[in-house]
Amino acid sequence: MTSLLSLGLTADQERLYRYLLRSPGSDADAAGAELLMPHVRAVAAELWTMGLVDESLTAVAPAIAVDLLVRHRLERTRRQLAGLTQAWDVLTELTEEHRSGRTVHRVEHLPDGPTAMRRVVAMLSDEPGELARVRDQPLDGGTRFAGLLARGLCSRTLVSAEVLDDPEQDRCARKWHVVGDLHRVTSERVGHLVLVNRAVAFVRADPADARGGVLQIRQHGVVALLADAFDGMWSRARELDDRPLAPIERRVLTALTHHDTDEAAARSLAISVRKFRGHVADLMARAGVSTRFQVALVAKQRGWL
């Protein structure tokens, strides 16, 4: 006979449930006498708590009973996994304490950004899994970051459109995008956020003041919420080439299509020829083309003009 023990019932609970299925309308005393179960009322109360019998000791249909037992078992498994996750967090902290020789806290205040970045690099050096960042200021990853990308680091960076209005920052973002640090542009209000392997988060202690230091957060629930928020922003963000042109970029494109020489185009914008040519070079890089004729063509195709 197939047993319900694997679904979490005790032997007495299963005996009483099967008896009540076979003998609808029986009372607790009759069931206890026939099953030689002196504590039958306690067992019946347990079945009622689980939803397997009603107040009159009528057993629910087997299909309903099995469904309830499976749900109970899944919930117990979920709680057990949650406990294992907490145990893993503790193990991670102990390992970090052993490696660094310092106490690790769930929320730790770090004095500045460079200290936080050293922590990030150290964590990723041990396990180059996943890096997610939201930034509202210029950032260049450096050679160590390039080495992590070469080792297989999966990196995504969200950056505000205002940062990329600076041509130098736009070039920097594109450089890292090409080598594997995927960039997208967001028009949402952003602060500074770094997520390492979806297990540790770094945020500014004072969002309004970068000098206030950085909070390192290891609390699982908080980090999970921040990771979900990042994923939502990433899905809503635009690709680098899809963001609107800045007003000066639109004016440069218009001048490029209406004047035969750089000197005339620069004069129409009241800027120097050198600055005009710099804007044109940035637009060519953004469009991924090598000639001015091509940048004008791509601009029309993408609706930039």
Automatic annotation (TrEMBL):
GO MF term set: DNA binding
Domain of life of the native organism: Bacteria
Any one biological process term the GO annotation gives: regulation of DNA-templated transcription
Chain segments annotated as transmembrane: none
Domain (HTH luxR-type) ranges: 242-299
Name of the protein described by the UniProt record: HTH luxR-type domain-containing protein
Species in which this protein is naturally found: Saccharothrix variisporea
